[in-house]
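Translate structure to sequence.
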């Protein structure tokens, strides 16, 4: 897996690839094989954190929140998923968790764990997010928020 992923990450980090969309990966496998840990290691590698077991760099990396994990099983209802995605102006709710993360940390590694546990339409909506020319349209305002520096990992 690392032989495939590292060259892509290196190209992204060094700006060798002109991208009009976020880098994205789909990790599959049974529980306990290390999908989440690999996602954390990718974030640490990209953002200079050393070890997940402590140290000054690791602490600073965690404080920057460059790795954000969403347990998609928490979004099994349309209302909960809409609160994650963001809701349109005039509807009760806010910009959504994904928008908040990308606004604060446009280069974050965003790990969407167990996407199959979210509402049935989540897969199509998430693919739309990844295939939108590197921009996320904020539901409330229509503003375009760049996603090209983010890395999305789905499992």
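Result:
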């Amino acid at each position: 897996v690392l032989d495939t992923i590292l060259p892509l990450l290196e190209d992204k980090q060094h700006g060798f690839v002109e991208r009009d969309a976020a880098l994205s990966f789909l990790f599959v496998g049974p529980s306990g094989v290390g999908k989440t840990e690999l996602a954390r290691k990718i974030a640490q590698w990209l953002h200079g954190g050393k070890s997940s077991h402590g140290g000054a760099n690791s602490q600073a990396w965690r404080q920057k929140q460059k790795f954000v994990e969403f347990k998609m099983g928490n979004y099994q209802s349309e209302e909960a998923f809409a609160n994650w995605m963001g809701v349109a102006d005039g509807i009760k709710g806010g910009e959504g968790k994904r928008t908040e993360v990308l606004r604060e940390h446009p280069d974050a590694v965003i790990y969407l764990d167990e996407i199959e546990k979210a509402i049935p339409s989540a897969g199509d909506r998430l693919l739309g997010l990844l295939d939108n020319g590197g921009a996320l349209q904020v539901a409330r305002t229509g503003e375009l928020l760049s996603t090209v520096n983010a890395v999305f990992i789905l499992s």
